[in-house]
Amino acid sequence: MSRTVSVPATSANLGPGYDSFGLALGLRNEFSAELSSEWSVTIEGEGEGLLAADARNQVVDAMVRLFEEAGQPGLAASVTCKNSIPVGRGLGSSASAIVGGLMLADSLIEAGIGQQRIFELAAELEGHPDNVAAALFGGMTVCWSGGSGPNALCIEPARGLAAVISVSDTPLSTSAARAVLPDVVPHSDAAFNAGRSALLVMGIANGDVTLLREGLADRIHEQYRRGVVRDLDDVRRILVEAGADGAVLSGAGPSVISLVMAPDDAHALEVAQKVAVLSREPLGRLGGRAVVYAVAVDRAGAFIR
Hints:
This protein is of the alpha+beta class and 305 residues long. It has helices at residues 58-69, 93-108, 115-126, 130-137, 174-179, 187-206, 209-215, 222-225, 232-241, 265-286, and strands at residues 2-12, 21-36, 40-45, 76-83, 140-146, 149-155, 161-167, 247-249, 256-261, 291-296, 303-304. The protein folds into two domains: 2-155, Ribosomal Protein S5, domain 2 (2-Layer Sandwich), CATH 3.30.230.10; 161-296, GHMP kinase, C-terminal domain (Alpha-Beta Plaits), CATH 3.30.70.
């Protein structure tokens, strides 16, 4: 018996929502598995020859964790990963692997763990909840931690939102991007981000382009990460000049995501495609920015098919 799960790419932070906001994107990884006497991993597409193709793989690690949670440790499976999400570029490839592995294992043994517990386990494995929440639930998510563990609020984006992503040729580890952040920030910057976070949520939820533009601004992390994503300001300028409504680091970077808003999803994707076409040449001249995606916002999240 084989199972397949499809998991979307994600962009975390979205400017002011540091370690709390996530947005699911219309770019997906597919993971398939069937129970076996020993672990085996086949990787196709992004990460082929780079990601671990054995029991160290993140999909396997997540499956092992779910089997243990369900009281059936020691099980193994044959796993195939068909990856479309770039690895180490700030688009949630690790979150997709974790969510995919947990859902595959749950489905294979019919454990019935439930979506909330899968979210909690995914946040545990990832170390933070923002990417895994968006990958699992779809749409936009706002995450926080309380006494009971990680929590996520799912927000349905208004119709007419799409994204353009400038992918860097060079990967950047989350640990390296976090290492450049200060331990404290000025109160004025914290207040700035609190206000912009609220504006961004309202802009995305209500389809208000003015609020969206104002909300895509940050003083908590992006200014410090210019040292490791040196072309950030140039990429942002190019995307906005091409017609985007704003651009921010995708997660910790180095990819940059820009958002566009239009009357409906079809028109938004058309606008995003035009922005991608207009920005591709000037981005290419920067060097290391050969790949540009125009994608819809994913509203389905992860699902078994």
